[in-house]
Amino acid sequence: MLQVQHLTVNYRRLQALDDIGFRLPSGSLVGLIGPNGAGKSTLIKALLGLIPTQAGQVLYRNKPLKQQLRRVAYVPQRSQIDWDYPITVWNVVMMARTPHTGWFRSPSRQSRDIVRDSLQRVEMLDLRDRPIGSLSGGQQQRVFLARAIAQQADLLLLDEPLAAVDKKTEALIFQIYDELKAQGKTLLVSCHEWGGILNHYDQLLLLNQRLIAHGSPTEVMTQKNIQVAYGIPPALPHFHDSLESNFFC
Predict the structure, then answer these.
(1) String of b and e for 109-142 (b: at least 16 CB within 10 Å)?
(2) For residue 7, what are the domain limits?
(3) In the chain, what is the straight-line distance between the N-terminal and C-terminal CA atoms, in Å?
(4) List of E strands, 25-137
(5) For the segment 56-73, what is each residue's pLDDT rounded down to a tens digit?
């Protein structure tokens, strides 16, 4: 179980996150939603220890998460990746095996098999020799998901992994999420869009500097919670009608 307790982050003298607390059970798919500037990426980075926190702690299986980072796979936002870096699809995914093989050792046969299987699962094995920068946005997202799979982590933190993907890739990604859940892994996914797609998630975290709601999609996506999070009452149909909307978070 991932436990976040009283997490507070200040950024350039402004409070980015205020007293955040929640628990995520193993084998769950959790969506992280909220308006632009709500602190979604900040929260993911704070969980990983990539930015300093002013208060709080992050525990995984009752131990500090920062002491167990080998058990965590992180997929950052597309804007944080240098797509011009000269590296092939195969080598991007093989980087996930570095903690297992070391920096100056050749990958083992087991690692090569894991990378091959990971690329096969996201239907990118045929493009393994392509430069990562030559791929479409959806293909690039698949490659980074393959890297997360190859890491064989127990906890996956993904920051807007559905950005720039087509419907086929979206369906494939959610299929893989379900497979990872069935293996007992925990996935926290920052969402770029929302609507009926939120029904895929077991739980949602609705964030805007503070945690506004945490629960099932139907519990979280109420008119009241949305109004608090976004500051205005958006004209949305009822969630049970799939909340098909053009709002972004």
Answers:
(1) eebeebbbebbebbebbebbeebbeebeebbbbb
(2) 2-241
(3) 26
(4) 29-33, 55-60, 63-64, 72-75
(5) 999 999 999 999 999 999
Amino acid (1-letter code) at residue 56: G
Question: Is residue 219 included in any domain, yes or no?
Answer: yes
Residue 246 in any domain: the answer is no
pLDDT at 242 over 50: no
Phi, psi of 186, deg, nearest 5: -110, 130
Q: What pLDDT does 99 receive?
A: 78
**Which residues on adjacent β-strands are paired with residue 96?**
none
User: pLDDT tens for residues 21-35?
Assistant: 999 999 999 999 999
Structure tokens at 158: 């993904």
Candidates 117, 161, 210; CA nearest to 29 is: 161
Any domain includes 249: no
Total count of domains within the chain: 1
Q: Can you say how many angstroms the Cα of residue 74 is from the centroid of all Cα atoms in its chain? A: 7
Q: Are 221 and 204 in contact (CB under 8 A)?
A: yes
Are 173 and 141 in contact by the 8 Å Cβ rule? The answer is yes
**Which residues does 106 contact at the CB level (< 8 Å), separation at least 6?**
none
CB 231 within 8 A of CB 181: no
What b/e sequence results for 155-191 when a residue is b if at least 16 CB atoms lie within 10 Å of its CB, and e otherwise? bbbbbbbbbebeeebbebbbebbeebbeeebbbbbbb
Residue 19: CATH number of its domain: 3.40.50.300
In a domain, 232, yes or no: yes
Pick from 207, 154, 244, 222: nearest CA to 36: 207
